[in-house]
Amino acid sequence: MKNFKSVFFLFLCLCFLGNVFATDFPTKPIRLIVPWASGGFTDILGRVLAEKISKSLGQPVIVENRPGASGAIGSEYVARSNADGYTLLITTSDSLVRLMKDKSFDPLRDFSHVTLIATQPVLLAVGSGVPARSLGEFVAMAKNKPGKISYGSPGEGGAVHLAMELFSNVAGIQMIHVPYKGINPALTDVLGGQVDSILISLQGAGGNIKSGKLRPLAITSLNRSPIAMDIPTLSESGYPKFELTLWYALTGPKGISQEILDILNREVKAALSMPDVNEKLTGANTNPIGSSPEQLRNFTRDEIAKWGMVVK
Q1: Contact, 77 vs 252, CB < 8 A?
Q2: Are 211 and 262 members of one domain?
């Protein structure tokens, strides 16, 4: 009986200590890897969340950019990191598709899922030097010049690349793909006239639409944006049900404990509910989500099934 009591007491102590260690997280700075170049929307989103979470957790959250290969370089770096919650990743639809294509890691099995942060439609836009004033005129121009009209993307094999290829197939046009290491260098060349078109968010486009340097032809959501009602959708422009929604999620290496995942999930949700953060996102035509880890896992599974067909 004495031995039983001793073992039971030890068990209670271990359970107590386990709870203490879990709730002590974090005890040192957290690194948030953004797998894209600085200045893009993913980078901006990461820094906004890092600032809020740093204050609430009492530890610095340091944003580190590791761009390249449509987000795969940063993603692979995080997948190989220790599963202690101190190295995290902002996953995007582009990086998911690239990992699926390369098969270097399994986006579902090789990562811990924290929360779906937000979703965002994009614009099909052209530089001011392109004569097309509507999507119909753009498609007609591309048909008249097969293989001559170009588009820029954040990288080879990402969601934007595949979406533009899918649209080209649906529209019956041939375009030249010009990949970059992020959306900003792609936008720079569109504005400079070296590249004709681009898929880009309202936030990424910045003041270039208002200034006339960038001309939006259509938005990829099924409904018009409440902050850009004058931009028609692809669906109403002759391509019914054609939709592309980019998304952003917080993940980490496989094996992060549920206690730490719950803490991180709680903190991101709290940040997204703050009025100033919510205003920044909705002002960028972005829908804040804040899902549970399980919901993100199911969402990722659905995205793999959807993009798997396009990749093949």
Answers
A1: no
A2: no
